[in-house]
Amino acid sequence: MNWLRKFFDNQRRHFQPGGKWERWEFLFEPTEKFLFGWQQLTSGPPHVRDSLNVQRYMVFVILALLPCLFFGIYNVGYQGLLAAGRPAGLWPSILLGAGKVLPLVVISYAFGLGWEVLFSYVRRHPISEGVFVTAMLFPLTLPPTTPWWQVALGISFGVVIGKEIFGGTGRNFLNPALTGRAFLYFAYPVQMSGNAIWTAVAGSGRAVDAVSAATPLAVAASGTGPVEKALADAGYGFAKLFTGLYPASIGASSTLLCVAGAVFLVALGIASWRIIAGGAAGILATGWLLNLLAGPSAPAFWKLNPVFHLVMGGAAFGLVFMATDPVSAPDTHAARWIYGLLIGALTVMIRVLNPAFPEGIMLAILFGNVFAPLLDYMVVALRLKKRIPNV
Amino acid sequence: MQKIHSKRGIDFRIRGWPGERLIELDDPDRVAVPVDKLPVAKAGLLVKPGDRVRLGSVLFADKKRPWLKFLSPGAGRVSQINYGPRRVIKELVIDLDGDEKYVDFERFSLAGLRAAGRREIVDAIVAGGLWWALRRLPFRDVPDPDVVPPQILVGLAAKEPFSPLVELVLRDDPDLLRTGIEILEKLAPKVIVYTHADNHEVLRTAGDVVNLVVDGRYPADDPATVLYRTKQSASENRSWYIDYQDLLLVAGLLTTGRLPTRRIFAVGGTRAPSRVHFRSRLGVPVSHLVDIRAIEAGSRLIAGGILRGYSLEPDGFMGIFETGLAVLPANREAEFLALFRPGFNRPTNSRAFASRLRRRELEYDCGRQGPERACISCMYCADVCPVDILPQMLYKAILAQEVEEYLAHGLLDCVRCGLCSYVCPSKIELTENFEKAKMEYARQQ
Ligand code: SF4
Ligand code: SF4
């Protein structure tokens, strides 16, 4: 890699103060360091520092998301071929899926990074690596049929309104990817409501190249008999819901891969296990409570086995990848438990009790984000009370 | 015996600890008192270049507190007074002439010590120029001798890389420590002597004076951590502490009537030519402890521990408080796509490197390991803080200059252990900012 090293060494002078591209130093530096690491030394005590930096932290989150992306590509193609009545082999599925999904990911990165670069340039800030995670998370939550312009609009809204206007990463209190997703949800409810899910049909020449079918959550909400049976009748057995091989948003359907991602991130100490565990416990407890409270006349959805709530819709994806975003989550461990529980409980309540919103996880997390500072405030106040004052 | 356990902190698996060997060094040609590293506001010089001094002659005193004197650590001629930025005295260099003429101080017999009152002991330490050895928490400044502190903490402690082995230092003269503790008992109603639960030799040889055992990782053995873990009320906040090697100096002064100069230094770090203990004297030049020419270019000399110490030039001198010298690499090689490598030899407290899979010692270097970024609220800092501070919140309170708030967050309990800065993936200089805020607060007092 010596030629590359030399290339960077030669170009550096242009980006140094007085060089012709001086103001673009904030792009040069991260690119160079990304490839070759950071050589700066500590200027004082402590003289040694942990090898872990934010960049590696973000790389791991993206790594954990890649299986969801790959599965999403396959699944989108597979469902598209099925809907067109064509044989859904492995490679044709991947090819078709890649054609549908990758443009959305590329657009998401292009616009997300574009805004980040613009804000960095104007504010003379370093680029924040968080945008790489945001731009990956965002398209995974979208239906594969989302128009390209909506992807661009959504990620722009998420990055600009969800993050930059608060001063950038670290100061935002909402999860940017989820902010963008919620914006599309409310601005374009027809395409995004989540009552019906979307399959990009293979090779159709029609103007509208999508078919929709009721999502598991819509089936569950409308069913009258036992919900488990209604789901099974609609083709959503437990195993299918768990693996995620059904028409759904691009990358958020597979609970299996979310569990794998959670294990990976928790094992590396990146994601807070307290939030994930709290969230799962909140979902199960609330589902179970509804079971208990359900009288004979209660809607069938009340009586659903709570475990189904974990595997339906985007609950697992949201808990593992969205709720654990440390910036928008509370800081203290106790508050993280409460935050998880709150999100879990709200998810189920929105799903079951509010007919207007079939999917609850998105709103629950945003709601949790809003309350995170308050939760922290209370936990910290209690903690500080226990300290022996030292003034 | 009371026992405390601290859960937090870090166990550094670092390569380069000095071995148990103790090498006697001949006297250097020169010694110095590095003035800028002392807790004095402004030094008023009492000598000028060319003056002849004895071991124990007064070199300078604190202008604000003239009784706080600093004595010559050797007999000879004042050869240089070096100044740092803004004409602050950096160090006073004395060329030793080898005859070791010394100033006589009051000398106590053991019985005399026991019979002496607090005043007498204080006066003897102050006159003998060793009062600086006593430090007051939380600012680590030199205390007012007339104030009786709630307690004095003495740590027989060595967790920070690279500190001398306590047992090695105590082997010299085990009774001197006992004398020292008797002296401290004159100064304060309570003296806490603690050591590590796993230091069996110290527990065996000095077990009679040890009254507290600490168990836990660095910095469980720092006096501020011990105070935080043991204190019952806010009245103990202004406790004093003294380093055990400094206590041996005080005991030596009072029992011999002569300013002792012997010190044991630990030299460690992967770039140190020989990693051993040296017996030398106060104010020794660094070049006397390590062969500067044998050190690879691009290394950093650190006096006083890799987490709290300061870097020294090759022509520098060991400060009077410092007993450890580390030589670490300070020239990072570019490693292509290091971000994506498993990192079998990368030191970390996280679980994000493969080095966590093996328990072996690793080489640490002075790299910052990343650029400074905004806080991502990962809470790694809070998970290591030995005194239950939430560093990222304390940092925000300090940036906002909310004095009440940062005091409530425990700024004054901060041990300045450096661990929060060490673990921070955003490479925020937390400890440095805490220390600045603390000093600023101390000035306003
Ligand atoms: S705040 Fe940082 S430097 Fe202070 S005691 Fe805690 S970890 Fe150590
Ligand atoms: S370790 Fe650094 S990034 Fe993490 S919470 Fe503390 S200050 Fe913030």
How are the SSEs placed, and which strands pair?
The complex is a heterodimer of chains A (391) and B (445).
Chain A: H1 2-15, H2 25-36, H3 54-83, H4 90-123, H5 130-140, H6 148-160, H7 176-187, H8 189-192, E1 196-200, E2 210-214, H9 216-222, H10 227-233, H11 238-243, H12 255-267, H13 273-293, H14 306-311, H15 315-322, H16 333-353, H17 361-386
Antiparallel strand pairs in A: 1-2
Helix pairs in contact in A: 1-2, 3-4, 3-5, 3-12, 4-5, 4-6, 5-6, 5-7, 6-7, 7-17, 9-10, 12-15, 13-16, 16-17
Chain B: E1 2-5, E2 22-24, E3 30-34, E4 43-45, E5 52-53, E6 58-62, E7 69-71, E8 76-83, E9 89-96, H1 110-115, H2 118-127, E10 134-136, E11 152-156, H3 166-171, H4 174-187, E12 191-196, H5 200-205, E13 212-215, H6 223-230, E14 240-243, H7 244-256, E15 262-268, E16 277-281, H8 286-289, E17 299-303, E18 310-312, E19 324-329, H9 380-384, H10 391-399, H11 403-408, H12 419-423, H13 430-444
Parallel strand pairs in B: 1-13, 2-16, 11-12, 11-14, 12-13, 15-19
Antiparallel strand pairs in B: 3-9, 4-6, 5-8, 6-7, 8-9, 10-14, 15-16, 17-18, 17-19
Helix pairs in contact in B: 4-7, 10-13
The structure holds iron/sulfur cluster (SF4) (2 copies).
Q: What would your notes on this structure say?
A:
In chain A, α9 (216-222) crosses α10. Chain A has a two-stranded antiparallel ribbon with strand order 1-2. Chain A folds into two domains: 54-192; 216-383, no CATH class. Chain A has helices at 2-15, 25-36, 54-83, 90-123, 130-140, 148-160, 176-187, 189-192, 216-222, 227-233, 238-243, 255-267, 273-293, 306-311, 315-322, 333-353, 361-386; strands at 196-200, 210-214. With 391 residues, chain A is mainly alpha-helical. Chain B is an alpha/beta fold and 445 residues long. Among the domains of chain B are: 2-17 and 104-256, no CATH class; 371-444, no CATH class. Helices cover 24% and strands 20% of the residues of chain B. Chain B is built from 13 helices and 19 strands. Chain B has helices spanning 110-115, 118-127, 166-171, 174-187, 200-205, 223-230, 244-256, 286-289, 380-384, 391-399, 403-408, 419-423, 430-444, and strands spanning 2-5, 22-24, 30-34, 43-45, 52-53, 58-62, 69-71, 76-83, 89-96, 134-136, 152-156, 191-196, 212-215, 240-243, 262-268, 277-281, 299-303, 310-312, 324-329. Chain B has a six-stranded mixed sheet with strand order 1-13-12-11-14-10. In chain B, α4 packs across α7 and α10 crosses α13. Chain B is globular and about 65 Å long. The model of chain B has no long low-confidence stretch (mean pLDDT 93). Chains A and B meet through α2, α3 and α17 of A and α12 of B. One iron/sulfur cluster is lined by residues 375-381, 391-392, 423-426, 428, 430 of chain B. One iron/sulfur cluster is lined by residues 384-387, 389, 391, 414-420, 430-431, 434 of chain B.
